[in-house]
Amino acid sequence: MSPAESLVRAEIAEQPAAVERVLADASGAIARAAAEIRRREPRYAVIAARGSSDNAARYAQHVLGRLCGLPVALATPSLHTVYDAALRYTDGVVLGISQSGASPDVVAVLEAARAQGCITIAITNDAGSPMAATATHVIDLQAGIEASVAATKTYTTSLAAVAALAAAAAADASRRRELTGVPDALARQLERTEGIAAAVEATSAWQLLAVVGRGANYATAFEAALKIKELTGVAAEPASPADFLHGPVAMLDRGFPVLAVLAAEPAGAAMRDVLAAAQSRGADVTVIGGSNRSPEPGNRHLGVEPGPEWLSPLTAVIPAQLLAVGAAERRGLDADRPLGLQKVTRTV
Amino acid sequence: MSPAESLVRAEIAEQPAAVERVLADASGAIARAAAEIRRREPRYAVIAARGSSDNAARYAQHVLGRLCGLPVALATPSLHTVYDAALRYTDGVVLGISQSGASPDVVAVLEAARAQGCITIAITNDAGSPMAATATHVIDLQAGIEASVAATKTYTTSLAAVAALAAAAAADASRRRELTGVPDALARQLERTEGIAAAVEATSAWQLLAVVGRGANYATAFEAALKIKELTGVAAEPASPADFLHGPVAMLDRGFPVLAVLAAEPAGAAMRDVLAAAQSRGADVTVIGGSNRSPEPGNRHLGVEPGPEWLSPLTAVIPAQLLAVGAAERRGLDADRPLGLQKVTRTV
Fold first, then answer.
1. Chain A contact set for B281 (CB, 8 A)
2. 3-class state of residue A1 by DSSP
3. Which residues of chain A have a CB within 8 Å of the CB of B82?
4. Distance from CA of residue A150 to its chain's centroid?
5. pTM of the model
6. What is the dotted CATH code of the domain comprising A3-180?
């Protein structure tokens, strides 16, 4: 199978249509969930998720805080499944995000919340899943079957659902209008291949990788790192600029690779300082976003479509997806069957 | 300076006395904060912290959930400092954990919460700090000056403060009694050097490292990884067993090093499955806790004092601290001045 025919590349290409579909078809469910949020005025949100969906939860943490003023806790399912703790979700809204809707620990959090009469919302690609059956509101991603192991279209459709839910709960008509531009922006983003070939070339030297992002794109840094880990086995570690300075910075040395997401202001300012420091120490910095214009820090740049900053995680993740797939192909790996699974098969 | 004289080793050795001191001297502040929590019945908690204190916050997330039923959000300070978002902390209790109490982004979260009339609690080693001035309740760690860059005694005293606060807020007399045994347990733990020399020997091969922990010791995995990163530059990546299976597992190969925290049941069961899988794939597994008795998984074990599982993060982190310091010394590094700082000095 040639790289161009891989399932994951096909699924990446489906993202504009998939996001357009979820924004249209799930709009009723999103409006009903948002109406219950506005009526009951929850004090906080709890989100249960794993893997890529946990990165969508990181975006939800940002956007529900920014648009709706809600503090957001990422759930600790082990309190339910291992410790049988009596968590009280009083006055909370509890969301589960899971492509399959089948993860028992995520379902356990929603079950506890539902039993306590909380607002419960399931964001899933399987409306017939146990998680969907547990929640009051079901936002069906309708992304179609995702056959490759690395999640791509279910990630961006989850982000779109979260963004639409936050804008609706905030009754923010201006942001809701901005959302309608996302499918076209994603289509244009897929055409923006400038810089990708040079960046893929640079990945051949990657063994360790620091990935940095802030604000709205903190989630993008985590998702980029996860795709790279899953698809190539490179030890990609995500961090905020503050966390980066608390630890990973110790690993920096001449040629150490850094991948940074620098989509737009206002988070861009804090990022530039970190990137300039990294580059001055000889790190090899690949930037998603920014520009090649001096004095922008970075050894190479992957273009990101301009647009509202709060929605930039939808576009900015696409260069990261393409970079991860390109890096896997360059290493002679099958991008549809990441290393971990092959290795499980090898051992008995 | 010989390894035995390093500041960080001296500070590690001070931990039993420091924890005994905070449990005694901060008991009044802890009782007052707990009384306000019981009286006002917050719906959730928000914790702002960075670095090692963020790992103490991970323990607080576990223990406030387990003992008090509170969902706990780890704050996203960038919403305040970068986006100027209007977070509402209504009906919440907001904690800041910071050794210095000087981190502006942590202070920003507490300022917003205090202005809204929330319960605010500062856990800090500097009672004269901006963070202490912002909070209603100040839990002074009184750990003395921490001169080495890697936090050790301020981490364990923060855990002790958090555990005492949770037990008091839950009005759990039995757990409060269990807490009084911690200083002696820490002293015994410092004497338990079995396995350390062999484990330090194995660290010489480390370049990448996966660190795994669950439940109460999820925080310990993060803190162990941070100490190892700070002190040795090894790319140590922490994960829960679930997250480990979502990504880092792809990196596993013959000889790949894994450090696991397996302090006690009930979290131990889930951990054993992951460790057995890792070992069957040829990974080199160092276990904090567990035993050398067959069929316990792991290539080597560092002993952890028996005791109540909810308090095991206090004892279990000590072998991790000693391992990180030993690994740094074995590499010829100065354990008091981690790599990152030296490198900042080198570049202009």
1. 343, 347
2. coil
3. 214-215, 266-267, 269-270
4. 12
5. 0.94
6. 3.40.50.10490
